[in-house]
Fold Cytochrome P450.
Amino acid sequence: MLPVFATCCINVINRWEKIMSSEGSSEIDIWPEFQNLTGDVISRTAFGSSYQEGMKIFELQGELAERLVQSFQPVFIPGYWFLPTRNNRRMREISREIHKILCDIIGKREKAMKNGETNSNDLLGLLLESNMRQSNGNAKLGLTTEDVIEECKLFYFAGMETTSVLLTWTLIVLSMHPEWQEKAREEVLNHFGRDRPDFENLNRLKTVTMILYEVLRLYPPIVLFSRSTYKEMELGGIKYPAGVNLILPVIFIHRDPSIWGEDAGKFNPERFADGISNASKHQAAFFPFGGGPRICIGQNFALLEAKMALCPILQRFSFDLSPSYIHAPYTVITLHPQHGAQIRLKKL
Ligand code: HEM
């Protein structure tokens, strides 16, 4: 995984260096840059050699998310989603296109695996291999192709959008707080100098980890998620029948002064100096990756990828906000910068 992260990050950094002016500075909207980066990473880790076909999926999923949000009505009209409006038709078209790309990738891979022509060191290979082993020729056992398609779609969306959002807000916030940018750079240079980061030392980056946690607290990529009661139960002194949908408003809890103190709205990574459990009054108050049995399976992947991307950026550039940047977080399933994230980079 780490070589994949490194290759993708270096491609981005090299491109940034190429577009620098002769004075060694330039303005870049890092939001699409990080979407490309995390799309590239997830395509390669999910689909290995078929990553280029996979890249098309993330463009389509981005459009699907935008259209899904557009389709929410101020007033709920039952059956609205089934009407053949332009938006609904396009959404169905996109879903069919994603389905077809995934079917083609899976079909090719299954054929190659049967012929012994491929290894299984990517997500798709692992899913198909474990499926073949489990079902052992019995089509009724194991995952169906549809199951594999759904797993790939989930992995793709969950893994790409969220991490690109995390990286984007991190650079924005470090531009707003140059003192923390400097602290992070110092730590990275102390550990790695100008060299490529290695796995062992990436896990030892304390300041960078505190910064990432504080960004996840203030700008959680998933601002809310839900749970349903499967039986009658009492929560906080209130009885709920089965089937009630409960919303967990991550962003509100992450910014609640009664939990985090009076400076809850301020960027202060120092609060995580003694770990997550000592950062607030309630251990479970920090939950950007959800919780319980359905907690995000990609949290270590995401944090490692974010650190791997931040290191070469801090090693090679200093950065601040462009005057054209407008701070406007808004939600299109994940928490986006509404007008982009224009950053001025300066070569070090
Ligand atoms: C900053 C990055 C990320 C954030 C903030 C994030 C957040 C979340 C959240 C809030 C959930 C729902 C958990 C729950 O219901 O308790 C989730 C689920 C999930 N995430 Fe992530 N995620 C991130 C990165 C990733 C990555 C990189 C991958 C894959 C490589 C991934 C794969 C998944 C999957 C497959 C699930 C569904 C798990 C299940 O339902 O059992 N996520 N994520």
Q: What stands out?
A: The mean pLDDT is 89. The pocket of protoporphyrin IX containing FE is lined by residues 154-155, 158-159, 162-163, 166, 221-222, 225, 288-292, 294-298, 301-302 (CB under 6 Å). The first strand starts at residue 25 and ends at 29. The beta strands are 25-29, 225-228, 233-235, 238-240, 245-248, 317-321, 329-332, 334-337, 342-347.
